[in-house]
Amino acid sequence: MQAPRVLSLPEPCLVVLIGAAGSGKSTLAARLFPPDAVLSSDAYRAVVSGDEADQRATRTAFAILHRELDRRLALGRTTVIDATSVTPFARRGLVRSAAARGVPAVAIVLDLDPQIVLARNAARPGRVVPADAVRRQLADLGRSLRLGVLDAEGFAAVHLVRTPAELDSLAVTRPA
């Protein structure tokens, strides 16, 4: 078993989980953070349409997510975004909201081997994202990493997770 990798997070902060569908973002969020701190795009799609897979609900779901994010940041509450966030456009508004409230944004990037992500996605209980969509997400993430844009987007820290063992060993600490 791999030794724990402990990330020290400021309090409060915005944590943006970045990765393709099936990479482990929701599992990681549930393991490391209290449920009330996690804003999930899938959960908001379910609220809007009754179906977390209903892509027609995406615009409204993200409007609600951003409104709730702003409310939480205004209250000084650490908030975790559980969405793919694989493009600069998807991350831009999140980082801007945090900066406007003087809250540091931290990226946790799940950059696992594509074959592992595709296999995990195919084995997900419940909703399986079409493999072509996952491949597009992986390509978008790869482009962001290759171009080094994450470092220039305003994150206080960018943490890369590249293996399942590293993902499973990840832990966080926050000041009391």
Q: Which features characterize this protein?
A:
45% helix; 176 residues; alpha/beta; Rossmann fold; five-stranded parallel beta sheet
Q: What do you see in this structure?
A:
It is a single chain. By secondary structure, the protein is α/β, with parallel strands linked by helices. It has one domain (5-173): P-loop containing nucleotide triphosphate hydrolases (Rossmann fold, 3-Layer(aba) Sandwich). It has helices at residues 25-32, 41-49, 58-74, 88-100, 114-122, 131-147, 164-169, and strands at residues 5-8, 14-18, 38-40, 79-82, 105-110, 157-161, 170-173. Helix 2 packs across helix 3, helix 3 (58-74) packs parallel to helix 4 (88-100) and helix 5 packs antiparallel against helix 6 (131-147). It is globular and about 40 Å long. The relative contact order is 0.25. The mean pLDDT is 92.
What are the segments in which pLDDT stays under 50 over at least 5 consecutive residues? none
For the record, the count of structural domains works out to 1
- Strands, count: 7
Relevant CATH superfamily: P-loop containing nucleotide triphosphate hydrolases
Biggest sheet details: 5 strands, parallel
Helix content: 40-55%
Question: What share of residues are in beta strands?
Answer: 15-25%
Secondary-structure element sequence?
A: EEHEHHEHEHHEHE
Number of helices: 7
A few lines on this structure:
This protein is an alpha/beta fold and 176 residues long. It is built from seven helices and seven strands.
Question: Secondary-structure map with pairings?
Answer:
Blueprint lengths: L4 E4 L5 E5 L6 H8 L5 E3 H9 L8 H17 L4 E4 L5 H13 L4 E6 L3 H9 L8 H17 L9 E5 L2 H6 E4 L3
Helix pairs in contact: 2-3, 3-4, 5-6
